[in-house]
Specification:
Layout lengths: L2 E9 L8 E8 L4 E5 L6 H8 L10 E8 L2 E2 L5 H7 E4 L14 H11 L4 H15 L14 H13 L5 E5 L7 H17 L3 E5 L3 H4 L5 E6 L2 E7 H6 L2 H4 L6 H11 L10 H9 L1
């Protein structure tokens, strides 16, 4: 197990109302778990807690247990937590150093700060670049990238730290459909080719459809539903908690309601997915 939260509660410093209450979830190596919920459900706070940043770096009060690769986050220093769990936020500009002249050097920034050998740094950067398929970007200026490309570079920079867990907080929220598709394909490749555990907060359920193994629904700081992605994304739980179903699911249900569902064949699923995009 790479990430396990057990009966977790959290409140920010100076407040008396908890943001998270009794949250339990698990993300195993090689697994992608999608976290969805309405605004102000506590999703971003859960990301901070899962990565050990709360209360490790920002303070606050934590209850329950948060295990990162078998270690309680309470026992980890910030740099130790960062090596076990990489976190990617919505805006890649907040994570890029702003000092590197090339994408390659940007990705190498983190490993260099770990004091690794040149050979190890090169191996880590080349591995991240290959996994995400961004070889064509390595000589580019990080300041002259599209939103999707910048997010991929930020993700590669996190991957080069070789964490056992990746926590992604709405990584495509500021991207257009092309950028979202670019990041989605990279995450699918990452999930397939590595053993990293991925927890992804995402309001674009079309992205989670086909990417996530399991879905966790958070509302009011509590887990209200959890289970296999295919069943939860197609059911009635998501709209009951203010989350839109994937477009392909909505189209299929509309056809079924119109009495046309019986005409759908196995290949029509691909057609619906294409319409959703």
């Amino acid at each position: 197990m790479s990430l396990r939260l057990t009966d977790v509660g959290y409140r920010y410093a100076g407040t008396t109302v908890p943001v998270l209450t009794g949250v339990s979830l698990e993300v195993r190596r090689g697994q992608v778990v999608g976290l969805v919920g309405p605004n102000d459900a506590g999703k971003s706070t859960l990301c901070l807690v899962a990565a050990g940043l709360a209360p490790g770096s920002i303070g606050g009060s934590l209850e329950g247990s948060v295990l990162l690769d078998g270690r309680e986050t309470r026992e980890l220093r910030p740099h130790e937590a960062a090596q076990r769990c990489g976190i990617l936020f919505q805006n890649p500009a907040t994570q890029l150093s702003g000092t590197a002249p090339t994408v390659y050097e940007e990705i190498a920034f983190g490993p260099r700060n770990l004091g690794l050998s040149v050979a190890e740094i090169v191996g880590r950067v080349d591995g991240a670049v290959a996994t995400l398929g961004i070889r064509g970007l390595v000589e580019r200026d990080p300041h002259r990238l599209s939103g999707g490309e910048s997010q991929l570079v930020a993700l590669a920079s996190v991957m080069a730290m070789r964490p056992a867990v990746l926590v992604l907080d709405e990584p495509t929220s500021q991207l257009d459909p092309a950028g979202t598709a670019l990041v989605g394909r990279a995450l699918a490749r990452l999930a397939t080719e590595t053993s990293v555990a991925i927890l992804i907060v995402e309001h674009k359920t079309d992205l989670l459809n086909g990417l996530a193994d399991d879905i966790v629904v958070l509302d009011g700081g509590r887990v209200v539903a959890a289970g296999g992605a295919s069943s939860l994304l197609a059911g009635d739980v998501l709209p009951a908690h203010g989350v839109r179903r994937p477009a392909a699911v909505s189209i299929r249900r509309a056809l079924e309601a119109a009495g046309l569902g019986g005409r759908l064949t196995g290949g029509d699923g691909d057609i619906l997915a294409g319409l959703a995009e």
